[in-house]
Amino acid sequence: MKPFYKYLLEAGTDEAGRGCLAGPVTAAAVILPKDFVNDTLNDSKVLTALKRDFLRPIIETNATAYGVAQVFPEEIDKINILNASFLAMHKALDQLTVNPKLIIVDGNRFNPYQNIPHCCIIKGDGKYLSIAAASILAKTYRDAYMEKIDLEYPMYNWKKNKGYPTKEHREAIRKYGLTKYHRKTFRQLPDQLKLGV
C-alpha cells in the first residue's frame, strides 16, 4: 500500500455502518506522513477486530491529522444514508488541523468539500494507506459505540452484530420492536413494506 499522490498532502476518508439497521454512520479522515509505513494496515474489513484495535492508536499517534465523526439515525432518516455518509465524512474533514491539498475517498461518489479537489476510488481502502487508516478509525470508533449502546439494549446483541442486518438482529426486532437507535426509514424486516411507527 502507498500514498495516492507522492507530492500532495492528501486526506483519505471512509465510512463504516452504511448498511446497518441501527446506530450511526461513522466516518474518519486521516492525513498520514509521506514516510509512514505499516505492513499490517489494510482495509478494515479484511482485518480481525484485534488487529484493528492494535492499529487504531498507531494511526492516531502517527497521523499528521485525523478526525472522526458520526451521524445518528434521526438525521439519517431525514437526509437518507448516502447524504448522511457524505455529511459524516465532511464533519470528519472539518476536524483536521492541517488543510489537505487533495481528498481521496473510498467508493464512487462524494459531495465536494470546500474547494479541495477530490478523487473517488472504488475499493480504495485496500489500495491506499490514508483511506485504509480512515477505514480502521471509522470501524473501531463505531464498534465501540455499538458495544456501549448494547448495554442499554442487550437483546439485539449489538456487541456482536454491530447493528448489521443479521438473522438474529432481525428476529430481535420482530420480538421487541424498534429502539431509538434504529433507522426508521430502513427496511428492518424482509417482509415489511412500511414501518408502523
UniProtKB/TrEMBL annotation:
<keyword id="KW-0378">Hydrolase</keyword>
<keyword id="KW-0540">Nuclease</keyword>
<dbReference type="InterPro" id="IPR001352">
    <property type="entry name" value="RNase_HII/HIII"/>
</dbReference>
<keyword id="KW-0255">Endonuclease</keyword>
<keyword id="KW-0464">Manganese</keyword>
<protein>
    <recommendedName>
        <fullName>Ribonuclease HII</fullName>
        <ecNumber>3.1.26.4</ecNumber>
    </recommendedName>
</protein>
<dbReference type="InterPro" id="IPR022898">
    <property type="entry name" value="RNase_HII"/>
</dbReference>
<dbReference type="InterPro" id="IPR024567">
    <property type="entry name" value="RNase_HII/HIII_dom"/>
</dbReference>
<keyword id="KW-0479">Metal-binding</keyword>
<feature type="binding site">
    <location>
        <position position="15"/>
    </location>
    <ligand>
        <name>a divalent metal cation</name>
    </ligand>
</feature>
<dbReference type="InterPro" id="IPR036397">
    <property type="entry name" value="RNaseH_sf"/>
</dbReference>
<dbReference type="InterPro" id="IPR012337">
    <property type="entry name" value="RNaseH-like_sf"/>
</dbReference>
<feature type="binding site">
    <location>
        <position position="106"/>
    </location>
    <ligand>
        <name>a divalent metal cation</name>
    </ligand>
</feature>
<keyword id="KW-0963">Cytoplasm</keyword>
<dbReference type="Pfam" id="PF01351">
    <property type="entry name" value="RNase_HII"/>
</dbReference>
<feature type="binding site">
    <location>
        <position position="14"/>
    </location>
    <ligand>
        <name>a divalent metal cation</name>
    </ligand>
</feature>
<comment type="similarity">
    <text>Belongs to the RNase HII family.</text>
</comment>
<feature type="domain" description="RNase H type-2">
    <location>
        <begin position="8"/>
        <end position="197"/>
    </location>
</feature>
<comment type="function">
    <text>Endonuclease that specifically degrades the RNA of RNA-DNA hybrids.</text>
</comment>
<dbReference type="GO" id="GO:0004523">
    <property type="term" value="F:RNA-DNA hybrid ribonuclease activity"/>
</dbReference>
